[in-house]
Amino acid sequence: MLSRRETLFTALKAACGISVGAASPLGTLLTGAAAAETPARPPREWTVPFGAALRDGPLANEADYRAAVARHCAQAVGEGGLKWFDLRPARDRFVFDQPDKQLEFARANGLELRGHTLVWAEVMPDWTRTISQGEAEAELIRHIETVMSRYRGKIRSWDVVNEPIANDPASRTHLRPSIWQQRLGEGHIALALRTAARTDPQARLIINEYDIEFVGDRFRRKREAFLRLIRDLKLRNVPLHGIGLQGHLRADLPVDRDALSAFVAEMRSLDLEVLVTELDVVDDKLPAATDLRDMMVAAKAYEYLDAIQAAARPSAVLSWGITDKYTWVPMYFKRSDGLPNRPLPLDEAYRPKPLMRVLEHFCGARR
Ligand code: G3I
Questions:
Q1: What is the pTM (predicted TM-score) of this model?
Q2: How high does pLDDT run on average in the chain?
Q3: How many domains does the chain have?
Q4: CA 77–ligand 1 middle distance (angstroms)
Q5: Fewest beta carbons less than 10 Å away: which of 99, 327, 337, 347?
Q6: Residue 291 included in any domain
C-alpha cells in the first residue's frame, strides 16, 4: 500500500508533471517535519534576507500577525501606504501615517523596510489627471524629493519605478500607458531615477516588473522589452542599482528556466542586483485538496527560485504577504470552488506551509 507521502508525490506528478524523489531536496522540503516544530532560523542569520509585504489593518490590530512577521522576516515592504493613492489624497497633501507606522514596526523589530513605490501607472488619485504636460516634471520631482527625503537613511531600497513595461508589449519599446508616460514620454523613468539619486545618494534604486518568468510568447516579449529598457538606462549612465522580479507565480504556468536564468545572468553582467520583491503563487487553477495544493505551490516557488539561483544569488526575497489570511490574490484570482486561496508561506492560522520551507531552503542555506 502507498504511504501518504507516496500518494501525494504520485498526485503531484499527475497534476503538474513534477517528479519528486523522496530523498531529493524538494521531496524533503515538501514533506519534511512541519517548520513549526523546529526552531525558526533567526532571520538575521539568513544568507539571503527574507521579507514580506505588510498590510496595515492586521499590523495595527493583530498581535499574531505582528509576531509572525517579526519571527520570520528580516525585511518588510508596505503592500500599500507609499502609493500615490494612499499618500496624496489631494495635490497639496502628503499623508505619511501608514508608512510611518510601518517604519516604526520595522525598526522596533530590526527589519529593513523597502519603499514601494514612487512611479506606477496604477492607483493614482483622480486629481492627478489634472496635471498638465507643463507641470508634470515639477510634480514628479516634488513627489520623489518629498517622500524620499522624509525617509532618507531609513528606507534604503526603493522601487523607484514599478511595472514600466506594457502588460502585453507589442514591441521592445512598448511601455505601460501612465500619466507620466503620456506627459513626459520614456524620459520620465530616467528623470525619476536621477531625482531619487540626488535626493538620497545612499539609497538602492530599483525598477520592479512582473511576468518575466514564464514560457510563452507574451512573457518572452516582456523580458525583451524590460531588458531593452534596462540596457538603455545603463548605457546612458542613469543611476540604477537593481531590478525587482515581482514573482507573482501562476501555478498553472511553467517557468522558463533557461530564459529566467539567462535574464538574471544578464542583469548581473550589467552589475545590477536582483531581488525577488513580491513572491506568491496564484493557486486558482490547482486542485482543492489542501495538502496537494500546498505542495504544488511550494514546488512552483522552488522551480522559480532554483532558476534564479542558477545564475545569481538574489539580494533579498520578499513574499507579497506573510499569511493566506491577507492576500491580494482573490481580488483577481478567486477559485471557482469558493475555497480560499493559499498563495503565501503561512496558512490563515500562521502555521508554516511547505512554501515556508522552500523559502528557508533558498534564503537560509549557508554556502
Ligand atoms: O483601504 C481600503 C479599506 O479601507 C477597505 O475596507 C477595503 C475594501 O475593499 O479596501 C481597502 O483598500 C484596498 C487596499 O488594497 C488594501 O487592501 C484597495 O481597495 C485595493 O485597491 C488595494 O489593492 C492593492 C493593489 O496593489 C493596489 O494598490 C493590493 O492590496 C496590493 O496587494 C496590490 O499590490 C500590487 C503591487 O503594488 C504591485 N504589483 C502587483 C501587486 C498585486 O496586485
A1: 0.94
A2: 94
A3: 1
A4: 14
A5: 337
A6: yes
